[in-house]
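Before relying on records like the one below, remember that each one covers exactly one chain. Contacts with other chains, cofactors or solvent are not represented anywhere in the record.
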Amino acid sequence: MSTLIVYSTISGNTKAVCERIYGVLTDEKEIVNVKDIGKTDLNKYENIIVGFWCDKGTMDKDSIDFVKALKDKKLYFLGTLGARPESDHWKDVFENAKKLCAENNNFIDGLLIWGRISKEMMDKMMKFPEGHPHAPTPERLARWKDASTHPDEDDFKKAEGFFANLLNK
């Protein structure tokens, strides 16, 4: 089976996890930044993994544009986000990504991985006034601190195992 991994990254989290997934796949494979996808023959690949970073509760814009341009492809996703894994936001991101991948394609499965929030995003949110839905609060600052150590080795191993089990058959 041939697999294409297309990733978008802002903090480096998604790229790092996608590179680890790439390393465990045993069949024909390629990894490409979504910004460079125009040079890739998508028809060569049986499977496509879309690696995205979470933006406003869903895939980032580049990943959405890429997925919406696909038709009748076998899709998987790997998303990274700074929300806590047990949160409702985490569940919403999974469902939103699943819905996007299933729109015109054959969605197989997806995985979310906890990741640090980019400095640019934290700087932006630190400027939000009190009362803004994304303003810094003690809980949010604690979550950012906890997320700052992710993805960690356990996260990488989880992603490697998940995709190896799905694609190395």
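The beta strands are 3-7, 29-33, 47-55, 58-59, 74-81, 106-114.
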